[in-house]
Specification:
- With 997 residues, this protein is of the alpha/beta class.
- It has five domains: 165 residues, P-loop containing nucleotide triphosphate hydrolases (Rossmann fold), CATH 3.40.50; 88 residues, no CATH class; 167 residues, P-loop containing nucleotide triphosphate hydrolases (Rossmann fold), CATH 3.40.50.300; 180 residues; 342 residues, no CATH class.
- 48% of the residues lie in helices and 16% in strands.
- α10 links the parallel β4 and β5.
- The chain starts with a strand and ends with a helix.
- About 1% of the residues have low confidence.
- Bound molecules: iron/sulfur cluster.
- This is PD-(D/E)XK endonuclease-like domain-containing protein.
- It comes from Thermodesulfobacterium geofontis (strain OPF15).
- Pfam families: PDDEXK_1.
Amino acid sequence: MNQALFIPSNSHFLKTLTNFFLDKHSLDDIKTLKVWCIFPTKRSGLYFKNYLKEKLKLKKIEAGFFPRIYSFEEFIEALYTNLISSPFPQVPSILRVFVFLEVLSKRLNFFSKKEEDNFEKYFNWGIKFLEVFEEFEKEGKIPENLLYPPEGLPELAKKLFEELKTTYLEFSSLIEEKGFSYYSYRLKKVRDVLKEEKVFNNNIFNEINEVWFIGFAALRRVEVEILKYFKEKFKSYFFIFEAYEPIPSIIRDTLKALELDYKWISPDYYEKKEIKDPQIYFYETTDPHLEVKSALEFIPESLKNPDEIVIVVPNPFNLLPLIYTLEGKENPIEVNITLQYPITKIPLNQFLKNLIRAQKEREEKFYPTQVYLKILKHPYFLALEFEGGISFQKIIKEIEDELRKIGYLKITLDEVENLVPKYRDYLEKIHKIFFRNWESIKTPFEFSENLKNILNFFEPLFEKLKDEDSWHSILLRNYIHVLETKIFPIFEEETYLKDKSFSGSFLLEILEYLLKEEKIPFIGDPLKGLQIMGFLETRLLSFKKVIILDVNEGFLPPAPSFNPLLTDEIKIYLGIPIFRNELWVYYFERLIKSAEEVHLFYIFVEKGKTQEFREPSRFIQKLKWELEKEEKKPNEKLIPLYFEILPEKEGIPKTKEIKQSLLDLIKTTEISRYFLETYLRCGVKFYFKYLLKLKEETKIGLRSFDIGNFIHEFFENIFRELEGKEVLMENVYKENEVLEKLENLWLSYKFERKMDALSHFLSKKIAVETIRKYFNYLIDKERAGEIKSTKILGVERSLKLLTECNLFDPSYEEFRNFKVLFSGRTDFLIKRKEGITKYLILDFKSNPDIRPYSGKEKIDKMFSFSLSDKFDNLSLYEVADIFGSDLSGFQPRFYYYLFYQQKEKFITENDKEFVVINAGFITPSDFKNPEKFVFNLSKRGEWAKIYDYFKNRFKNLLEWILNHIIISDKFYLPADDNICKYCEYKAPCKNYRYLLE
Ligand code: SF4
């Protein structure tokens, strides 16, 4: 058996290899040019060459004869183009899918009528089947027809498996006919041609005196055959492996496949003579930003060598936070990136994805409003300025306000143009390029023209960005390069698509696929500065300090991409080898062993409200376990979430000036229930709304208050004409008229544009029923003698009260009296004669479950409550608690107070006559119990206590809340996070929390 050489990882693999190589070959010798060194990756070859150069420099020599250094892919390309008489160009995989679909259309007669529909349908299956074919090609096999395909697959897949061999052979011959090639096809072709005797006469072999295969592992069968060919044909060759004890199974298997024995290289060649175990540190955190920030603390101000430090990012999406944090450093360091960066997160890509989405979700001329707005609100648009200095940001703001006002879920472009007619010219242009042009595309060429029009539109902006030396600009340049070199040509030049006619939706599907799959290949050249790498790019490289982020399951090892046609079971069935995680274990261990210091960061989120579950990688567990076996304690650190997440912080601090403005605000504002409730609910929200006067973002579509407004308006319409009259509902309720009014009002609210069809149908049905049932409830009560008459005292009746309050004045630092205007507006104020005369202050509520926080216990709590002399968060939460967790008890009590304080205006009975005053809600959609009151008392004595409370005590509570607004040190966050769920200020609030220290 021939011998392979093992170089230990901890000797610095590539430098030890360099020492060994230079012992065999001199860079002064021209014959070195005929030594070919093949590496699994381009990067390792690049580092090797760099180390050779360094050695030359040590000898003060500038130039020399270097070996030919190739990555394996380049090596195969060199062989393919030299050994094959008429080599074909490599084509993108998407074009292979079309070849596959063409085979399907001929063989299986799938595409008899509506060809393009079937193309769309089978496109994704095509992608999956190509992977199966590639697997066979890498194994150098022709698949067999499977008479009994695996169970559980869809019919189409089963049928294809039954005819796998025939389909594959037809696919291969069509590929040849078209003159296409791709990697696994080339691999197989090279293997095939090497079997021919005469091929060794080819010139390329005269170029090679000696060949070195360096650092390979887990070879596929065809690769093994190619390597073995060189082993057999060349007298001089080297197979060098990176290894450590115990020898990894993946290396043993590779040796076995290549029929090689092994020995360790002599320690004389070791670059690092003193072999030590690396120091390993573990860092656990729950927050990706902290992970990045903490990792960067290990980066010095400057770096001399490219093998000093590497930051490994197994999750490529961590690259951007990492480089932006690096950019933000006081002395930014030179950075070199080597990884395949998926383009999905790049802003221009997200913009294009939204354009696709807008077309996919378009119904005739109607676009989804949210997506339409997302497109127009993209930062690229917002940065635009039109002639005359009109900023597009301003135009968008107006459009958005209008769209939110009408709340339609779907909108036509004409409607948008009509909403803001003064900007029609600009909008027409934008609508054409970004929407209308995409509505009826027929040919791929038209499609790529549309894409180009978009780039042209943004050209001036991109030009400006390109001049900037920021990462955003680097990413943008790379992204445009990917579009120009990998995406446009598919639609324009290639024989398959160019002149064909396809449906627009199919072309969008193809574009979507390409925008998802393409990557920016950062190649990290020159070898300088801080190295940031994808995990696989670190193969064979050694660094003094290794920092690995996201050592989490799913990234290290990565979650395998799922192909239902290549499950383990099917692979066994088809005779395709199954690689599990051995290879990843090997790459991980060799990287760790080659370093002196290793910092492993991982995220641990057990059950997150806002984050997904993340657990440390099995590699972390294994390393810790190994340390424990050796009775060594792992160096672990938990990175706490300092100030980043605010709950420990209580809120936004108030300065003396703010406190003064708060007093001024109270003196000059009508103090409504919303004003007070907002403060009780969340001080921060109060700050945004009343102090900063930030507008709440209104939702598109049906808003929670839309139905409420409808109900209010409807009852107002019905009862307004009865104001001041004493009536029986039985006499005034004419069902047909009422329902007709409801129909007209419903139409005017345009609910059909704010809800999906089913919700609209159901909501309307419920509204009709609700109204009918409520009137019938009142009529039944009248017929039963429980209601003798109803006098409508007011509809939408305003209740204002100007009263003196003792408030703290920050400029005098003492309490002083000020006039305060409390204000409310009750929906329905009535005097109802039951057994007793009742004055009822009522509000319509659309939520049938809302209660005015009534019941004896709650009333007792209100009576016995004593106000704190502290103005902190806890005392505020206690006050809010008297009104129920949703504060539903506040409004009726507040209105009760306003009514009671001026009751003489409404109550016509003399003092001696007992009347009941009550407040509550009308919830018409609660059919059983549509009226709910705060106080459900029977004894006069109990009512006397209530009256006394509202006459003398309730004001203290209001005064206390107002003083809390002025005096407390902070605008406090809510006691319960649930309040944030439907908050319209989530966005500013989030930003604010991060700013606070
Ligand atoms: S998101 Fe929560 S904490 Fe922030 S303003 Fe809204 S309710 Fe208050």
